[in-house]
Write a structure and sequence with these properties.
The protein is an alpha+beta fold and about 260 residues long. It has a single domain, classed as Alpha-Beta Complex (paralog of FGE (formylglycine-generating enzyme)). The chain contains five helices and eleven strands; from the N terminus they run αβββββααβααβββββ. The longest helix has 17 residues.
Length: about 260
């Protein structure tokens, strides 16, 4: 029996190591502010009004449809005020606290933040598409089919109208979902990259959909500290003008692999 070529074996080990590194969460530091990005392996999922959403679905969540998304990294937490300050040098939030999610930021404000962050890090951050957001909220390829992000019991995973005291709370203080991602239900609404389309689901692409090519409002997902349980579901859709700000509007980053 011949021995394996040393160089072939070495290349195989290096390749395996690269794959392992690529699938490991990344911790990034900007001006002293650390934040973690969770690796989400791409896959196929049913998006929209699936059976576990029950009778709470709105018409704009229909029809449920199969979608394929590629792999990406997504923020383990909503962007905090500490990170916003590290990049922008200001804090627009109504509820103040370094580890609270930043809010009162518009979609347009977020684009400025991302441009600066990309310049500072040399990486390719952006907002998640609506499909990427929902795939991650559902737990990706580890999904257990929950109604909310990480549980069928909203109290365990979210800050919402029954437990929030009408304010935001520090990120990561409820239970995570199947991928180890926090607060994708409740705390603050999260801007997505897409233009909003009322009937977009009926004709959206089956692979990596990015929303309509134009519109007047941008997608928001996950609802917030002021929401009732029926609004914090993983398929719930909302939208607002890209220059609108509110004390429950925040966001979560996506990093392109």
């Amino acid at each position: 029996m011949t021995k394996p070529n040393f160089f072939v074996a070495l290349i195989a080990i290096m390749f395996a190591t690269q794959i392992s590194v690529a699938q490991t969460n990344q911790t990034i530091t900007v001006n002293g502010a650390k934040f973690e990005m969770v690796y989400v392996q791409g896959g196929i999922f049913n998006m929209g009004c699936t059976s576990e959403q029950g009778s709470d679905c709105w018409d704009n969540e229909k029809p449920a449809h199969q979608v394929t998304v590629g792999s990406f990294y997504i923020g383990k937490y909503e962007v905090t005020q500490a990170l916003w300050w590290a990049v922008m040098g200001n804090n627009p939030s109504y509820f103040k606290g370094d580890n609270l999610p930043v809010e009162k930021v518009s979609w347009d404000d977020v684009q400025q933040f991302i441009r600066k962050l990309n310049e500072m890090t040399g990486k390719r951050f952006r907002l998640p598409t609506e499909a990427e957001w929902e795939y991650a909220a559902r737990g990706g390829n580890k999904s257990q089919g929950y109604k909310y992000s990480g549980s069928n019991s909203l109290y365990n995973v979210a800050w919402y109208d029954d437990n929030s005291g009408e304010k935001t709370h520090p990120v990561g203080t409820k239970n995570p979902n199947e991928l180890g991602i926090y607060d994708m239900s409740g705390n603050v609404w999260e801007w997505c990259g897409d233009w909003y389309g009322e009937n977009y689901y009926s004709s959206s692409p089956a692979s990596n959909p990015t929303g309509p090519s134009y519109g007047s409002a941008r997608v928001l997902r996950g609802d917030s500290w002021g929401a009732s349980a029926e609004h914090c579901r993983v398929s719930r859709r909302h939208s607002n003008a890209p220059d609108d700000r509110a004390d429950d509007y925040g966001f979560r980053l996506l990093l392109v692999p």
